[in-house]
Amino acid sequence: MSTDTSSALVSSEWLAQHLTDPTIKILDCTWHHPSTNLDGRTQYRGRHLPGSVHFDIDQVADKSNPLPHMLPTAEDFAHKVGLLGISNSDRVIVYDRHYGGSAAARVWWMFRVFGHDNVALLDGGFGKWTKEKRPAEMTPVRPAPASFTANVQPGLVATLADVQRLAQSGAQLVDARGPGKFDGTQADVFAFKRQGHIPGAINLPWADLVDPDTGVLLSPDALTARVTAAGINLGKTIVTTCASGITSCMLALALYQLGAPTTAVYDGSWAEWSQLDDTAVAA
């Protein structure tokens, strides 16, 4: 797993051995909803992996769109990633402080959307790294700018129109939210206009794919068992969705590990679907 660039994961052991490799670029992708009063950039300044720079999904985003952290243009992504010192020849490693690493998984997906497949998530994230007493530092990293060229892969992104077609055709739309939010009985941190889910969606909570003790992704066999139990066919088209396009990327990453690399993510997710007057809602 560690040296295979077709894997979406690297282990803490592997990364510890490659910290000084100049072609390895590490991104601290810690993100919190504003309601938590926590700030990923502040936490980065407090402590981060050696050599890592902070990646903010709310800043590397389409700021003109009222929906949360929607994908930026290819030009904007390339510009901002270049300022972080990343070139197309680098191996990008992403992590965050959340159990499972869902914000980092979104950044993993973003890089793939813009044509950079040489990206992997640190399995277990910052939590596992620090529990193992591996090195961390406080000094912010100011990288020298690099040149990055984006090459958009539209098949990895699902739009509202795409999802509407899928919902009508009975294709596989998989919702990564917990069961309470999926069935509308539990409010979300986002002030959604309506609660529930897209009709026909399958519920596969992203947290069910992560080891509750270590935060690492479950083994392929355990992942396969959960995917099969949910009734998902890996050989057919899959689009993942969630609240705002973050945990759906964790689901896409898990499916990638199981041999479904073309899984698309509905970028607008429930944040978009729930606010429209002409979209059906199931509970």
TrEMBL record:
Domain of life: Bacteria
Keyword Transferase applies: yes
Residue ranges of coiled coil: none
Rhodanese domain span: 20-138, 167-282
PROSITE patterns in UniProt: RHODANESE_3
Pfam families attached to this UniProt entry: Rhodanese
Protein's UniProt keywords contain Repeat: yes
Keywords assigned by UniProt, alphabetized: Repeat, Transferase
Annotated PANTHER family: SULFURTRANSFERASE, THIOSULFATE SULFERTANSFERASE
Protein name listed in UniProt: Sulfurtransferase
Lineage per the UniProt record: Bacteria, Pseudomonadati, Pseudomonadota, Alphaproteobacteria, Hyphomicrobiales
